[in-house]
Structure formats: C-alpha cells, structure tokens
Amino acid sequence: MRVSHGLRRWPATIAAAVLAFGVVAASNNLTSTVSASDGAPTTEAGDPDSQKIADIVEQKMKERDLTGAVYGVWRGDEQIAGGAIGDSPIGLPATADMLVRIGQPMEPMLSTVLLQLDGEGVLDQDEPIAKWLPDFPRADQITPRMLASSTSGVSDYVTNPNFLKQFYANPFTGFTAEQLEALANERPPLFAAGTSFAYAHSDLVLLGEVLQNATGEPLGELLQERIFDPLGMRDSKVVLTSQISEPYLHAYTNERGVFEDSTFWNPTAFLHSGNATTTVADVATWIRALADGQLLTPEQHEAMMAPSTAGLASLTKEKFFAYGVAHDGDWFFMNPAYAGYDGVAYYDTKTQTLVIAYVTLGPKSNANTDNALSLGKEIATLLVPNNPPGV
Description:
Blueprint: H1 10-21, H2 50-63, E1 68-75, E2 78-86, E3 100-101, H3 107-120, H4 144-149, H5 161-169, H6 177-184, H7 201-215, H8 219-231, E4 237-238, E5 252-253, E6 260-261, E7 276-278, H9 280-292, H10 298-305, E8 319-322, E9 325-328, E10 331-334, E11 337-338, E12 341-348, E13 353-360, H11 373-383
Antiparallel strand pairs: 1-2, 1-13, 3-7, 4-7, 5-6, 8-9, 9-10, 10-12, 11-12, 12-13
Helix pairs in contact: 2-11, 3-7, 6-7
C-alpha cells in the first residue's frame, strides 16, 4: 500500500503496509513548529505529554542511528510538541523550520485537484484517460478515478529492475513522465482496469499528466493555485530539479552501500507523487485541510473519504486506500520514504490528533524500512491509548 517512496527499501516498507491492510499487491492558524537551536527536541509548556513525546523522538533517534529529525504534534488546533533533533548537515544542529522532500502527502493533493476539476466540469473523473493520454496502453479503459485510487492495474515502475538500475547508477539525473510511463509499460498490467487494487507510483505519473493536459497548466502551478496559496502554505513548492531552498534538512542514506548525503538526489524519480519541498508546519496545515475538506464541497469530501475501494483485493470498509489516502479505522496515515528522508503522518479523525515526523538516516540505519513509522505510531498511541493506530 504505499505507500512509500523508497527504492531499495521500498519492498519492505510496502510489505509492512500490505500485511497490515491484508491486501496484495489544518487549519491555517496552526502554531509554527518550534525550532531547537541546540539540536535537541523541544516541548510546549503546559502539556503533560510534551516531554514524553520529546523523549520518544530522542529514543528512536538513538535506536535507529538517525542523523536528524523534525517533528510536530497537535491536538485539535493546539500544537503540543514540536522541534528538531540531530544534525543538518552533520556537525550543525537541525532546526524545525527546515525543508524536506514531501513524498506521499502530495498524492491526495492531486486527488483534491481532480475532484475540483470534476466539479467544475473541466474533466470527468470517470471518463477514460484516452481523451488526455491517447497513446497510453488501455487508455480507453482507465479513468482518472482509478489512477487516484490505484485500481488501474498499471505496473509500478518503481519495482522495475530497469528503473532501479538507472536510478542508482546516477540518482542526480531526472526522469520525464514519458520515461517513467515507458518503464511502467515494460511489464504487463497486473489486472483489468478497475477490478482490483495495487499501489503504483505509475498511477500518479499518469494522473499528474491528465491534470496538466486537461487544464493546460503545469502541475506545480495547479497545486500552487489550488492548494498552497489558499491554505497559506508559503514554504511548499513543486520542484522539477534537485534544487532545495535553505534551510533544509540534509538527507543521508546507505542504500547504495555507502553512507552518503542524498539531499540532492533528483526528486523527479517520483514525478507527481512526491516531488515537492515543504516543512512540517505546512504538512500539518495540509493534513488538517484534507481531513476537514476545506478545499472541497461537502459532497466531494464525503466521496473522497468514503471506502470506495472496499471489496477490491483485500481492502475493507475499515482498511482501505482511496484518492491517495490510506485509512485504518478512525485513523488515516502516510509514510513517505525517499533518498534518505523517511516520514510519517498519523491523523485521528475522532480526536483530531495529528503526528508528523521526518527523519534522515545514519550510517547504521536500516534502509529497508521507514524509520519514522514506529516513532509516529508510538506517539500516536501515547496520545490516543484507547484507539491507537493499527498500522
């Protein structure tokens, strides 16, 4: 289930989510995350759990040999903990306002724009994508709705050995949509369009291209106009090069067999599914808006959060993936992982508890897992002990 933007570590991360799901294949006035000038975690005065949260972050940093971390935790509108720990770059303290590669939280942004355009009559989410991508195989059978919910059957290019070979040979070189589509089509479809579920980054590449072709605007401009600007996400930006503005959390990884700075690995390896830069505070704003349906009509938001894929593969009404969001009962979650950045976001729809963290790997870190996931889950369990996340 995704739900990972990892490379070598992708199979292990996705396998954990697959097992958990049993499948086969904010408001704008949120308090800014507090910066930790000495590289240690910070706490919010007055909340009894803030120090416990900081202790969890520090403990997980040591257990997993992580280099740096930025995080934030909210109950409703109140931020109860947040800060930074570790180094960025090595030898200098990380700060909580540092930019990271956003990864998977970008995916429901595409679905939000899709629903907006559908409501405006610009495109029909149930019309075959042949209108916008006539040369793509089975374009007359695949719809934008299928792409948004990973039910198209298109093979995931990320698991294609040819993609892995190309990427690891030179991770600074970018990819075009055409190149990624070709890699996806090197292997046959997994199933007939709309008949099952299998998470695929290929679906997001195609969905992004459909949105661009339908509007005549680059995806970066669409997200700027329809997501970032309306929500006041001033530190978020879609990027098509390795550039990342200062201050940024340096990424480190050992997934190529040597410990190295991977900050400038080209994010277009995950074109339209994670190639944006952001901060923890902006991700919090986005997830709250996503949960509240701030950018959609009530009908559209209800449809977006409904278990529309239940019954496909082993998805159920309690555990499902739809419109770029993984659901587990009252919780929805995201676990981006790419090029030394591991992230997690948990949101409980009942208590409005939100946990976000991005971490970077150390020399002895396990690159075959999302190192932020257990950190986020432990904090979420601390805050909602009677209904902790199951994934």
